[in-house]
């Protein structure tokens, strides 16, 4: 579908990333100007990204200040009554996306309209209901295509927007048998120009997929994190990366997730029922932990967890890979981490993955570097020779 | 209790970490030789660490090859019949720890015996049962102290052992009102010489704490990951850091965790019941997502997740802090990451936290750097000026 943009021989400096960007065909079928409805994080980022490749972008948002900020950032110009957008990107909250899509289809009878909400069936149903109620013609409805760019940041709002936000991020296009090719082409071009990786799914496939790989993890993290309200400060001092990893996304925005979870309830429920069955089984088992078969039960749950986790693709969408981990102690000050990584680079070893863990009482950090297993021994030797403490 | 070893003015090279180590008092009350029972990852690491500060270490393991590897690595010498260890560290699997503690208390009537198992009440109960059955005197039992070093790695076995494994890791000492001071002192000295941060708790407090901050997260990750067995490959292509983070520890070793979860079942069950109640409530709510009050219900769960997650201490045990995040695109080859971090260091900004995210289709990585919020703008400007793509 899309070919990788960067080969492994690209040099690091963004001058070369920019050069590589130049080689992407700028040819596109998007009808300008592009109107972005909703200048939050995603809408403003789309505006910035499309402007950076030379498209004319208009903006509108119910909040005058949000729109003003987006204009000031350079994401586009404010929509006026005379404007006739050829393409409309609805970047509004899921709750109002359907209504905004219908408004846009009616107001600009030649425009292609796409949305970017996290759920697709609910929006499609709103469009279909509008057609059934006579508020929209079937032909008008064909100018709409549901899409979902899977990018985001922990902050929200236009101030955090970046045009590069969608670089190498998945962007799902949800076509049906009735979607005209030119509409698909416009949506594809938007995603492609913003640097995303395009996937095609039906709305049902999409909602089922995100229920499993995004919505259920969010629920699990929130369920787990909410337990911590009853955890003592002393116990929390013992918290390690396991707790941090499993609860990290519990810091998500409630108002957004309420909309997503209620809109996708139908696809989420089977997953919740499955999890409930496993949890009930575990509760039964641990209520009689010395009973015959109890250990086998728990081992089966752990083993199924192993198998499921191993199915998650590794780097760059390839097969799940086992990398070897090298943990280096670093002092907690500017330059410390770069010094350690310089030593790794000098040893000629590529850093496949990277994370930090912090010590509970000391101003020392642990830099956890994933490397190809065959390189680990050499790297540990090289670092140790230079005086680094390797765990 | 323990003072931080490293101040922020320490220079990065481990020569200075070593110098700082020198200033730690080597005075200790440990009776040598120290015998380590069980040369797995932790036992062998303890051996290496104690030998590196000059203690005489003996080793024993039911597996001749595991013991031979540990000896070859330099973790200690094999135990002989003539040896009289003054201190015994039982580093066996939780299932056999109690029996090994009792054996050691009986065989060496002057030795202090400590264990390192992940659960403490179960072990204490085994010791008490032995006293009640007349297999051990109460005085003998007083020479035992339960401890738990909270360090570890995804690999197991002596080959992965490192003496520095416990540096800045929490090490819990579980004392009761009967534990003699000299026994506490020996255990404290072991932990301190290995560089750990010492915490004192009763066995019940310990088991309750680890149930909440370690065992429940493990269960949640395994429950969530096991669902992925039914997830299509196409859906998994959309997986992002949220799924990866929440399922990372689902790759844990089933045989070890079966022992831990069944041994600590009593403390884990209340947490599972609480989670079940929340899950049932959510299932009810999402079964009628348009009902009045449904959204409030879901919002409450999300909000409680926010609150719980915010209670997890930030870096170095301090209050949970909000850092600002700066995401830089890096090419995926040796030297790329160090080049980006050099630019951050040149800008004079400290890296508070660090992780990588990988793109699904491209050979490009996203380096996510946490910085003090007040430095973010300066850093983004500095990086952008140098040509880096900042998301």
From TrEMBL, chains A, B:
Residues 32-320 form the Prephenate/arogenate dehydrogenase domain. It holds the Pfam family PDH_C. Its EC number is 1.3.1.12. Keywords: Amino-acid biosynthesis, Aromatic amino acid biosynthesis, NAD, Oxidoreductase, Tyrosine biosynthesis. GO terms for biological process: tyrosine biosynthetic process. The keyword Amino-acid biosynthesis applies. The keyword Amino-acid biosynthesis applies. InterPro entries: 6-PGluconate_DH-like_C_sf, ACT-like_dom_sf, ACT_dom, NAD(P)-bd_dom_sf, PDH_C, PDH_N, Preph/Arog_dehydrog, Prephen_DH. It comes from the Bacteria. It catalyses: prephenate + NAD(+) = 3-(4-hydroxyphenyl)pyruvate + CO2 + NADH. It is an enzyme of class 1 (oxidoreductase). One of its GO terms (molecular function) is prephenate dehydrogenase (NAD+) activity. Pathway: Amino-acid biosynthesis; L-tyrosine biosynthesis; (4-hydroxyphenyl)pyruvate from prephenate (NAD(+) route): step 1/1. Residues 325-391 form the ACT domain. Belongs to the prephenate/arogenate dehydrogenase family. This is Prephenate dehydrogenase.
């Amino acid at each position: 579908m899309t070919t990788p943009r960067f080969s492994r021989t690209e040099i690091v400096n963004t001058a070369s990333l920019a050069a590589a960007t130049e080689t992407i065909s700028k040819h596109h079928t998007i009808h300008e100007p592009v109107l972005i409805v909703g200048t939050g994080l995603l809408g403003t980022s789309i505006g910035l990204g499309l402007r950076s490749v030379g498209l004319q972008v208009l903006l509108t948002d119910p909040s005058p200040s949000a729109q003003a900020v987006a204009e000031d950032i350079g994401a586009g110009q404010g929509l006026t009554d005379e404007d006739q957008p050829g393409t409309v990107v609805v970047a509004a909250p899921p709750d109002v996306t359907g209504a905004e899509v219908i408004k846009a289809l009616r107001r600009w009878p030649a425009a292609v309209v796409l949305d970017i909400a996290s759920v697709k069936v609910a929006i499609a149903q709103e469009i279909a209901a509008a057609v059934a109620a006579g508020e929209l013609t079937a032909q008008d409805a064909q100018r709409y295509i549901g899409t979902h760019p899977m990018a985001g940041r922990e902050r929200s709002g236009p101030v955090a927007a970046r045009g590069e936000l969608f670089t190498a991020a998945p962007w799902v296009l949800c076509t049906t048998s009735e979607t005209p090719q030119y509409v698909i082409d416009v949506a594809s071009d938007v995603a492609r120009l913003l640097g995303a990786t395009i996937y095609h799914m039906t709305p049902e496939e999409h909602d089922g997929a995100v229920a499993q790989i995004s919505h259920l993890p969010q629920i699990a993290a929130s369920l787990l994190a909410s337990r911590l309200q009853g955890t003592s400060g002393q116990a929390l001092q013992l918290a390690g990366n396991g707790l941090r990893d499993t609860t990290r996304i519990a810091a998500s925005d409630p108002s957004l997730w309420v909309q997503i979870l209620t809109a996708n309830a139908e696809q989420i429920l089977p997953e919740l029922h499955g999890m409930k069955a496993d949890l009930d089984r575990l509760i039964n088992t641990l209520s009689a932990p010395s009973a015959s078969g109890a250990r086998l039960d728990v081992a089966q749950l752990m083993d199924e967890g192993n198998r499921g986790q191993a199915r998650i693709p590794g780097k760059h969408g390839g097969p799940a890979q086992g990398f070897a981990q090298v943990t280096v102690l670093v002092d907690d000050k500017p330059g410390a981490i770069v010094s350690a990584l310089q030593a790794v680079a000098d040893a000629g070893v590529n850093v496949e993955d990277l994370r930090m863990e912090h010590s509970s009482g000391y101003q020392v950090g642990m830099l956890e570097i994933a490397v190809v297993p065959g390189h680990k021994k050499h790297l540990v030797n090289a670092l140790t020779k230079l005086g680094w403490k390797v765990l």
